[in-house]
């Protein structure tokens, strides 16, 4: 599966949802997550993300993000169309430590 990681937080560009063939993105206030049970590993969303937030879970150190994607995709609503991008998305793109500061 692919997972959404901290680079998405407060950026939330949503280009990813437009290309997913199985509509497996779910929307929280500050970021999106992928449902790992629904993702078919096609990889088309990865290069679409301007924040490079989407990674294959085969990369090292992503266990926390896989669990977070799994957990929140069960309670957040499905999203299939791009909405309004946060006004400060570009300014938030290279900010470090977003999980600690902004994840809710
Ligand atoms: Fe959707 Fe493919 Fe990305 Fe999985 S890898 S979330 S199926 S676009
Ligand atoms: Fe987030 Fe990138 Fe999608 S910033 S909403 S994972 S396009």
TrEMBL record:
<dbReference type="GO" id="GO:0051538">
    <property type="term" value="F:3 iron, 4 sulfur cluster binding"/>
</dbReference>
<protein>
    <recommendedName>
        <fullName>Ferredoxin</fullName>
    </recommendedName>
</protein>
<dbReference type="InterPro" id="IPR017900">
    <property type="entry name" value="4Fe4S_Fe_S_CS"/>
</dbReference>
<keyword id="KW-0408">Iron</keyword>
<feature type="domain" description="4Fe-4S ferredoxin-type">
    <location>
        <begin position="1"/>
        <end position="29"/>
    </location>
</feature>
<dbReference type="GO" id="GO:0051539">
    <property type="term" value="F:4 iron, 4 sulfur cluster binding"/>
</dbReference>
<feature type="domain" description="4Fe-4S ferredoxin-type">
    <location>
        <begin position="30"/>
        <end position="59"/>
    </location>
</feature>
<dbReference type="GO" id="GO:0009055">
    <property type="term" value="F:electron transfer activity"/>
</dbReference>
<dbReference type="InterPro" id="IPR022569">
    <property type="entry name" value="Fd_C"/>
</dbReference>
<dbReference type="GO" id="GO:0046872">
    <property type="term" value="F:metal ion binding"/>
</dbReference>
<keyword id="KW-0813">Transport</keyword>
<keyword id="KW-0479">Metal-binding</keyword>
<dbReference type="InterPro" id="IPR050294">
    <property type="entry name" value="RnfB_subfamily"/>
</dbReference>
<keyword id="KW-0411">Iron-sulfur</keyword>
<dbReference type="Pfam" id="PF11953">
    <property type="entry name" value="DUF3470"/>
</dbReference>
<dbReference type="InterPro" id="IPR000813">
    <property type="entry name" value="7Fe_ferredoxin"/>
</dbReference>
<dbReference type="InterPro" id="IPR017896">
    <property type="entry name" value="4Fe4S_Fe-S-bd"/>
</dbReference>
<keyword id="KW-0003">3Fe-4S</keyword>
<keyword id="KW-0249">Electron transport</keyword>
<comment type="function">
    <text>Ferredoxins are iron-sulfur proteins that transfer electrons in a wide variety of metabolic reactions.</text>
</comment>
<dbReference type="Pfam" id="PF00037">
    <property type="entry name" value="Fer4"/>
</dbReference>
<keyword id="KW-0677">Repeat</keyword>
<keyword id="KW-0004">4Fe-4S</keyword>
<dbReference type="InterPro" id="IPR054829">
    <property type="entry name" value="FdxA"/>
</dbReference>
